[in-house]
Amino acid sequence: MARFAEPMARLIEELRKLPGIGAKSAQRLAFHILRASAADAEALAGAVRELKAKLRLCSICNNITDVDPCGYCSNPMRNHRLVCVVEEPTNIATIEKTRSYNGVYHVLHGTLSPLNGVGPEHLRTASLAARVSGGEVDEVIIATSPTVEGEATADYLAGMLRGTAARIMRIATGVPAGSDIEYADEVTMTRALEGRRQMG
Amino acid sequence: MHEADLIVSLFTRDQGKVKGVAKAASKSRRRFGGALEPMTHVRASYAERPRQELARLDAFEIIHSPLSEPVDYGRATALAFYAEVLEETLQDHDPQDAVFRLLLAVVEQTQVNRFWMPVTYFSLWILRLNGWLPEMTRCALCGEPFGESPAYWHPLADTLHCATHRRDGSATLSPESIALAAAILRSPVAAFASGDWPRRRAADLRRYALRSLERHLERRLTTATALMKLGG
Question: Which residues form the Toprim domain (chain A) (predicted)?
Fold first, then answer.
């Protein structure tokens, strides 16, 4: 690193801290920024500054937002009695892409992960319990991943919300659309069969 | 290595621990599906390359998945505990058939609301298979059998002592737990499957085994802490 001028070395060092960025990628990005116009470099720096200065968590659903409550929680057109629980804010975009969900969200910011030392106390579950026990929610859809950690989290949430008036639902799992069932593993196929639906 | 690649530890019967790269596994589930979940029993196809530390993982066929049965936080913690202990205790390319058989047996028994027994069984046996389990029936100093009296253990020592020779700050092992440990060490895990095993049963024995493991590994086990928080 010593062969670079100090500001360049510093930028490379900072870029290396980003996920998926190694030493070579960091150098490439740093030189790209060096060659870019001053306006572009300033726009990048400004965007990073603004990201940290303006973004926060929605006080209702924990989604990342620049206004509180977030766009979903403050939208009167959405069904506020239907709450979909997701692991991360990025999961919201995946569900929104379907255009078939009009409820609101609750972001846990993780899943129960014993290997990573993440227990129930580390997830944002207390605010979910408060939302649901307030009686303003008819249905909770738990949309955590169908992994061991996601299933453990779903089970924990279902137990936590048991006794409230809300209906607790789990998203279905099964064979992905457009795939061939020949390549489905036994667990996926079992769940697809369990979740079969009547036609006609 | 790319960002979407995963480094996976396989515990194989023939070759012991093998570390490999599952290409693009964190981005696409097409090739590996749910086979990369901890404690999944698979038939693995992989290639080890000369002068390469990591094998190339090609395909996994699931023999048994932990997702075949319901999962709760307790069961997930127990499965993660097995994974963490094996990762810490096994050496690369050192086959351990007894440990492999132990693992298959305890994973099968690890079910929702029924995980304290296999966790206790695994902890005790993994200590024994690593040669870390001391004599559990008599005082290490005077040789007096514990009989109906409790045994004492210190967090900084391997051995068990009688009341006379215990060190300050020792914890106790009840006579029931000592008898249970002896039964565990001479019976298959399935022998304990039918009995009731609430969280409090043999909690002192489990605490002893977990602390003993951590002392030998010279580190805190994240999952042991999680088990303790669950009341273990």
Answer: 81-176
Among B17, B47, B68, residue at a domain's last position: B68
pLDDT per residue as tens digits for the range B99-140: 999 999 999 999 998 999 999 999 999 999 999 999 999 999
Do B77 and B141 lie in one domain? The reply is: yes
CATH code: domain of residue A190: 3.40.1360.10
The confidence score (pLDDT) of residue B232 equals 61
Of B70, B73, B84, the CB nearest to A112: B73
Would the pLDDT of A2 be above 60? no
Among residues B68, B92, B127, the one where a domain terminates is B68
Asked whether B86 and B17 are in contact (CB, 8 A), the reply is yes
Q: For residue B30, count other CB atoms closer than 10 A to its CB.
A: 11
* Exposed e or buried b per residue across A145-164, where buried means at least 16 C-beta atoms within 10 angstroms of its C-beta: bbbbbbbbbbbbbeebbeeb
Domain that holds residue B126: 69-231
Does any CB of chain B come closer than 8 Å to the CB of residue A155? yes
Give the C-alpha distances (Å, rounded to integers) separating A37 from A33, A44, A49, A172, B106: 8, 11, 18, 49, 62
Query: What single-letter DSSP state applies at residue B136?
Result: -
> Is ipTM over 0.85?
yes
Task: Please tell me the distance from the alpha carbon of residue B208 to that of residue B172, in angstroms, as a whole number.
Answer: 9
Are B199 and B230 contacting, i.e. CB atoms less than 8 angstroms apart? yes
Same-domain pairing of B81 and B146: yes
Pick the residue of B2, B71, B85, B112 with the most A CBs within 10 A to test the interface with A by mutation. Answer: B71
Size of interface A-B (CB pairs under 8 A): 81
Q: Which domain holds residue A173?
A: 74-198
How far apart are the C-alpha atoms of B39 and B45, rounded to whole Å?
Answer: 17
Other CB atoms within a 10 A radius of the CB of residue B67 amount to 23
Tell me, yes or no, whether B18 and B48 share the same domain.
Answer: yes
If asked whether residues A176 and A79 sit together in one domain, one would say: yes
Same domain (yes/no): A92, A191: yes
